[in-house]
């Protein structure tokens, strides 16, 4: 019988603290206990299962999908956003808003931020960031060559410089083509001291913000001219590529797809990206599901920000892959 009396006291202390909102000192005075004893009893209430913590997800958030992505892909953090339409434009807008919030609340003093310059979703993020009164970051570094078709080249330059201004940082532009005409042409561009200065900062990046692309390039990237030919993209598909991060391609299992084309890209490599402390990937949409799954399996992403439709597809597809592995 002694235990039931002990449990009754534990339940009473828990009720006073969690339901009646009394402070520990008030409980101690009322029940003629020491405050240390009250503290110990409250811990016992959790150990005994008398007090249980329940997190109720607010409407418009998707805790189950986020935890599913974390568990299935061994992902440190996932953010799944509400979206009324399963349409690329709407999805990019919602992901951009969520990414802007994360950058605003998590940016650390003197961060060196790397940003992929030809991503429409990242452009949406920049559109939603509020100017920071006190400058926080040190540099914003462009991680993929920004030169190309003059009609759209300003997108890459403005994305980098606007982000830098908003977060109080100094922009470091990569004044070279994202895709050189040849390996030899790339080597010539790498000899430019301004290009070299920017690329030397890759090893100092503490936060990288990247888009995830399917084999077919986005409209912005296609208009920039920083793309491979249809034949070259077909060769990448035959080699098993399903997507890319800054024109560095990978297969469905997250393994790098190395071809001679890789030698023509002027930008951050996957090996360099893997060394960055925090990498935030922004992507969503039906056409990118396979690419996002492959990107998650590269192991380079710290955070994925996606939409509810894509998250559901990723989890369904992961389940299919697991079943295929069991059959094999």
Task: Describe the protein.
This protein folds into 2 domains: 2-47, Homeodomain-like (Arc Repressor Mutant, subunit A, Orthogonal Bundle); 63-327, 3-Layer(aba) Sandwich (Rossmann fold). The protein is built from 14 helices and 10 strands. The chain has helices at 2-19, 24-31, 35-47, 63-73, 88-106, 120-128, 150-166, 183-190, 193-199, 219-224, 230-238, 270-274, 289-298, 308-327, and strands spanning 77-81, 112-115, 139-142, 170-172, 207-211, 213-214, 241-245, 248-251, 278-282, 303-307. The strands form 2 sheets. It has a 7-stranded parallel β-sheet with strand order 1-10-9-5-2-3-4, with helices on both faces. It has a 3-stranded antiparallel β-sheet with strand order 6-7-8. Helix 2 crosses helix 3, helix 5 crosses helix 6 and helix 13 packs across helix 14. The protein is elongated and about 85 Å long. Mean pLDDT is 90; it is low at 321-325.
């Amino acid at each position: 019988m002694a235990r039931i009396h002990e449990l009754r006291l534990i339940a009473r202390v828990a009720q006073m603290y969690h339901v009646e909102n009394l402070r520990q000192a008030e409980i101690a005075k009322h029940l003629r206990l020491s405050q240390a004893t009250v503290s110990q009893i409250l811990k016992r209430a959790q150990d005994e299962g008398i007090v249980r913590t329940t997190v109720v997800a607010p409407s418009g958030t998707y805790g189950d999908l986020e935890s599913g992505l974390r568990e299935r892909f061994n992902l440190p953090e996932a953010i799944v956003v509400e979206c009324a339409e399963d349409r690329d434009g709407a999805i990019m807008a919602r992901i951009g808003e969520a990414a802007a919030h994360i950058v605003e609340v998590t940016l650390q003093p003197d961060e060196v931020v790397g940003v992929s310059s030809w991503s429409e979703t990242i452009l949406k993020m920049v559109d939603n960031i509020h100017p920071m009164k006190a400058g926080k970051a040190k540099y914003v570094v462009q991680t993929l060559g920004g030169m190309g078709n003059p009609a759209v080249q300003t997108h890459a330059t403005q994305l980098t410089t606007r982000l830098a201004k908003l977060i109080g940082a100094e922009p470091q532009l990569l004044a070279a083509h994202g895709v050189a005409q040849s390996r030899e042409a790339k080597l010539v561009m790498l000899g430019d001291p301004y290009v070299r200065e920017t690329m030397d900062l890759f090893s100092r990046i503490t936060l990288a913000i990247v888009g995830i692309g399917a084999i077919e390039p986005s409209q912005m990237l296609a208009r920039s001219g920083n793309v491979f030919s249809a034949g070259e993209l077909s060769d990448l598909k035959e080699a098993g590529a399903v997507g890319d991060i800054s024109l560095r391609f990978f297969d469905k299992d997250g393994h790098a797809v190395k071809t001679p084309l890789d030698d023509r890209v002027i930008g951050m490599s996957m090996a360099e990206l893997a060394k960055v402390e925090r990498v935030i990937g922004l992507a969503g949409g039906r056409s990118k599901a396979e690419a996002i799954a492959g990107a998650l399996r590269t192991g380079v992403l710290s955070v994925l920000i996606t939409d509810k439709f894509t998250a559901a597809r990723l989890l369904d597809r992961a389940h299919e892959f697991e079943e295929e592995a069991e059959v094999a």
